[in-house]
Amino acid sequence: MARKLKADKLLFLAVVVLVALSAVMVYSASTGAAIDQTGPSYQLMFRQLTWGVIGFFLLAITMRLDYRTWQSPAVIWTAVLVVAIALVAVLFGREINGTRRWFAVGGIGIQPSEFAKLAAILFTGDLLARRMERVNDVTGTLLPIGLVTGLFTILILLEPDFGTAITLLVIVGMMLFAAGLDYRYLFGVGLAALPALYMALISADYRRRRLFAFLDPWDDPLDSDFQLIQSLISVGTGGVTGRGFMEGVQKLSYVPFPHTDFIYAVIGEELGLIGASGVLLCFGVILWRGLRIAMSAQDRFGAFLAAGLTALVAAQAFVNMSVVLGLLPTKGIPLPFVSAGGSSLLVNLIGMGILLNVSQHASADG
After folding, report:
1. Domain enclosing residue 212, as ranges
2. Residue 74 domain-assigned?
3. Are 321 and 335 a contacting pair, CB within 8 Å?
4. Residues 6+ apart with CB under 8 A from 59
5. Is 186 helix (H, G, I), strand (E, B) or coil?
6. Which of 6, 48, 227, 263 is buried deepest, with most CB atoms within 10 A?
7. Residue ranges in the chain modelled with pLDDT below 50
């Protein structure tokens, strides 16, 4: 039996810092929205704190649950089926801002696409662990992974949620790359996906406008380019030390979704380069420790699980911060652990709990 070790303290500390920062910055970033929409200015912060407490409770449970329990076929297939049913059910739910991504369970909004990432990681990690020597086997390995991932992706695109669908594909792709998939397959799939990607981009007017805004941010500053320009102004006016907590201006009806998708812009304005760099450092620590755990895992499933869960956080953080800084076209991807939102926070904290459990079974002390 694997030698029990302490959970990775640096990884845990980085997660705690980000969640604590979330509660503070969600309060600051959402003050105007909370007053306009819900009344008390602290309500959105209180909601985020509630999700954080629930999330850390689930993290504590998953951190103590042997990660090999997740390799059970009953667990994996139940997760896949439940997520698939939920993704179908949400399409018949209430439309919010032109999309159908949430449904209510006991008055609580649940976003199934977030849990789809976790289910895909479990399924892919188990299959790769059992068939690593045949990772290039199309029918035995790649086809099953492609069917499950493709099903989730199509259902998520129907919501529509282009950003989450791409993130899911990136996570699975990174796991396949870590398993040693022949680069020709990755290159071939990438080429084959280009027409579908092109059709997805041009099929919606708002996606086309976001792409053009990325290519020329100053072409239409009052409409399609407004989000990106206001985000860059917010980050730029923060300077090195920032305007100060609660002193940001751009969050007041200028930066869109300041407490969710663009909270990193608010951090840049109020906490400056120092605060923004601190957030980046925390994600760097998660990436570093996650990859270290993957490389020192006791078995293949632990290694692929750690790689997938690390990619889950790193990919979303990279996309979100890149969007805020104008390095990628605008997409609705939350900043893990920091942006307001219950489903994203729960899934990421559950994932970190599983990753911490893998670290407890690692062959070398963290």
Report:
1. 9-360
2. yes
3. yes
4. 15, 349, 350, 352, 353, 356
5. helix
6. 263
7. 1-2, 35, 364-366
